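User: Structure please.
Assistant: Input sequence and predicted structure:
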Amino acid sequence: QVRLVESGGGLVQPGGSLRLSCAASGIIFSILGMGWYRQAPGKERELVAAITSGGGTNYADSVKGRFTISRDNAKNTVYLQMNSLKPEDTAVYYCHANWWSSAYWGQGTQVTVSS
């Protein structure tokens, strides 16, 4: 069974930083394309950042220069480093993995940016 487990969410002040982690199990991690999505109340789920099995990355325009996605294949983990956080970053963040036609989702972790 494939599992994705997020951690690292919480409450942070505007301008602060947070690092999300997603640990994968039940599959060879190095073959997976990985991504972070987020969904705010009343909005559609959107792609925040993605990283391929080869290490290529892409980001939503709204987070470019502030967020960094990375992976550690030895630890079966993908990270999202979030800096200069803004209130509009508040959302549930979901880890996503894909391999060919298969897709997997984590349970989500809440990120709240507020004073």
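DSSP finds no helices and eleven strands in the chain.
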